[in-house]
Amino acid sequence: MELLWSQDQALSRSDIIDMSENNRTWKASSIHILLNSLIRKGYIEVDGFVKTGKNYGRTFRPVVSEEEYMVQQLKTPSISIPKFFSALVKDEDIGSDVLEELKNILEQK
Predict the structure, then answer these.
(1) In this model, does residue 83 exceed pLDDT 90?
(2) Please, are residues 45 and 63 in contact by the beta-carbon 8 Å criterion?
(3) Looking at the domain covering 2-62, what would its CATH class be?
């Protein structure tokens, strides 16, 4: 998803594999399953088709923003939002500037 959000154009399966070579945690052969899962969940959609060699391949673009995606992830039944924020606040890598920003967001709400 991060790769799709970072681009100004729709990406093909080959583009996604090539652009994620260095930080990929999944096998290249799994891309079809990953993309179809993201389509089913409504996170991406088929934007068009591009010729790749002798065949045509689909191109994909995100349907939800990064913020919308995060909200949907936090709404899953297995995640407790209060526990999540508690763990976040206790994390020593989180700076005071981030905590101050969170405080301001909560106060505005």
Answers:
(1) no
(2) yes
(3) mainly alpha
